Amino acid sequence: MAMATEVGLRQSIAIPETWGHRHLLGLEHLSADEITLILDYADRLQAATEHGRRKLDLLKGKTVANLFFENSTRTRNSFSLAAKRLGADTVEFSSSGSSVSKGETLIDTAKTIEAMMVDAVVVRHSSPGTPHLLARSLDCSVINAGDGPHEHPTQGLLDILTIRQNRGTLRGLTVALVGDIAHSRTARSNIWGLLKLGAHVIVCGPATLVSKNWEKLGVEVAYDLDKILPRCDVLNLLRIQFERQAIRPFPSVHEYTLLYAMNQERLRRSKPEIMIMAPGPINRGVELTPEVADGPHSVILDQVTNGIAIRMATLWLLLGRSQATLPSLC
Amino acid sequence: MESPILSDTNNWLIENGRLIDPAARMDREGRLLVIDGKIAALDPTDGDVPRGIERIDARGCIVGPGLFDLATEFGEPGREEDETIATGTAAALAGGYTSVALSPNTDPPIDTAASVEFIYSKGLRADRCRLLPIGCVSKERKGESLAEIGSLVEAGAVALSDTPSALENTGLMRRALEYCSMFDRYVFDHPEIGSLSRGGVMHEGLEQLKLGLSPIPAEAEDLATSRDLRLVEATGGKLHLTSISTSGSVELCRRAKHRSLPFSVGIHAANLHMTDNSMRSFDTNRKVKPPLRSLDHLEACLEGIQDGTIDIISSGHRPCSLEKKMLEIDAAPFGMIALETALAQVITFLIRPGIIDWVTALQKMSLNPARLLKQPGGSLAIGSPADLVVIDADRRWTVEAALFQSKSYNTPLEGAELYGLVRCSLVAGRKLYTAAF
Asked: Mutate which of B213, B277, B296, B328 to test chain A, going by most A C-beta atoms within 10 A?
């Protein structure tokens, strides 16, 4: 019985000929079909691992290195667990600050790790393009776990998976990303993925953090949350990134909360089936009140669970087949 | 070429070439006689040519006055890992530049008479192109108080500038324009309002929005340009904007030119053909100041070149050692090397497509910079120093920074196919550079 399941699973997650990626650097350049493939495989691997009660040996003998230049708890642990549930080994590197303060270039750090015969490097860094730099310099796979405000593809995918699991499809849904769009990699990855899968995307927040230029990409721009609220099927409440901003883009947290925090009162004016999401870590009382975060509309913890599934699917698709045969594509 | 690598002679007959004199707006076939390091005659009769004179066969080539750069940075003293005066002046000659005005961005910066002397003596020792030091406007190039500008001028500083930093302090800018006018020297400014651009990496716009890189908005330049021009009007001081890049700046300068204000406008060659689209590669060699702008700005700059609003095309040569450009894009320094590509960039992207002709190109790369600094150069007039360049304008080549004279490799054009190579460069009639091909 176990054998039969194993064979069935391997067939259901066979890596198609058309999948040509060695790295996952962002969602901007993935097609709708490729995104759907990752989501489908995440669902299958989630079922096969019985939500973590069962370990597989699909990536036995492979090693995944976490290389984090910014603090992270959930993403790092999520990648580690995903690797372990597929039977891979993991190794952890952390380093704070940029290359300059450390005296070693990023490329040297990464090459050192690669020399330990790792198959994939999961990298987070405050500077956009860092994973792209590594992808050009290393022979192993590179997974972007967040590069400054640029992209965070696995976060975008796990958000989309969470919506799809609840609603069955993205097509026709209205999804609002609320908050600091300018500095949010989560926003960018969500926007690319959501647009490709047919959702209507609204970016909403203070004008200092939401550029009108987004309209050129087919995204609706709004500054008044209360106006768009009745139309939204999903609200994704982005974290305010206090640390990234030289001149504060809004007068106070108090004012931000008045204008954009999701609270019980706003929930009452929303669609009854609205989904409340947040990539976390959440600032309770800033982006949303505890009642909303812990209420029946919140899928915040489902997002965390789905993160592991998305990362399993990503690791499998990138490492599941012999790399020698793959061209160097991003 | 008929002569070996170097020659001590400074008597030449340059024949079979196409002579271009931007000062006389001359563009025709002809012969050029150089005697004792000076231009002695155009189309001399055989009787006037000394017997046994060495000849340069410039068949198929352009012969013009050597190029003159106003936006070059080397690094010596203090950052010799980027470029020394010896490697930098050799790069200049290889690129066709016979004179270079050097930015004071060194460590320590060129803010004393002694440091001006240092640049001159190092330049003489290198014995390549002419090297003209620009002194700092402010003490230690900190933008706080005026440097001893009188002493700097006395020592031979040809202009005053804090480039590549902008003169952000408006009060200091006003004082600098007033004070430098006593010495009939230009203040060079890179127009940028730091509070709008600080931390920025690339031009603000749709590409920047997608890439999530910190923005350098166009208005950070427009406002500084506007401020500088207003201060020129108020003080009568002389201003050279080293490097504009926005449609706003072009328009402001165009209007100010109608009022005949004493200022000139420069642009880096890169801002005449590269756009912010190329930042998608996150290539740190594309991180330059001013940033590569979007197509609409680029087109406005090209119009400014055509209608004469922009007087001067500079290289914007800013070498950075390999290890500095290996960093992530936020941490990597700004700059690209360009002395050895600027001419080919102009030939490939401006002259060949017919945007400007050769006379105009040499006005902007040789005559106008020389006139601005009241230095010889930029013309083929009889009696002027034989600072000359022979250019094989149709020769196609592939950029390979490892083969450059420059010590650094930071060019975004690596691998690009360009047209136009310098065959030889003469300084005061001495052939100090001869191409290997």
From this structure: B328
- pLDDT one-digit tens code per residue, B286-296: 999 999 999 99
pTM of the model as a whole: 0.92
A·B CB contacts under 8 A:
65
* Tokens 């004279």 belong to residue: B405
d(CA A259, CA A224): 8
Domain boundaries, chain B: 12-63+385-434, 66-372
pLDDT, tens digit, 9 for 90 and up, residues A86-100? 999 999 987 765 554
Average per-residue pLDDT for chain B: 96
Please determine whether the domains at B12-63+385-434 and B66-372 fall in the same fold group of CATH: no
Span B12-63+385-434 CATH architecture: Roll (2.30)
Is the domain spanning B66-372 CATH 3.20.20.140? The answer is yes
Compute the average pLDDT of residues B311-333: 95
Give the 3-state DSSP-derived string for chain A, with helices as H, strands as E and coil as C: CHHHHHHHHHHHCCCCCCCCCCCECCCCCCCHHHHHHHHHHHHHHHHHCHHHCCCCCCCCCCEEEEEECCCCCHHHHHHHHHHHHCCCEEEEEECCCCHHHHCCCHHHHHHHHHCCCCCEEEEEECCCCHHHHHHHHCCCEEEEEEECCCCCHHHHHHHHHHHHHHHCCCCCCEEEEECCCCCCHHHHHHHHHHHHCCCEEEEECCCCCCCHHHHHHCCEEECCHHHHHHHCCEEEECCCCHHHCCCCCCCCHHHHHHHHCECHHHHHCCCCCCEEECCCCCCECCCECHHHHCCCCECHHHHHHHHHHHHHHHHHHHHCCCHHHCCCCC
Nearest to B331 among A98, A151, A185 (CB): A98
Pick from A128, A133, A211: CB nearest B211: A128
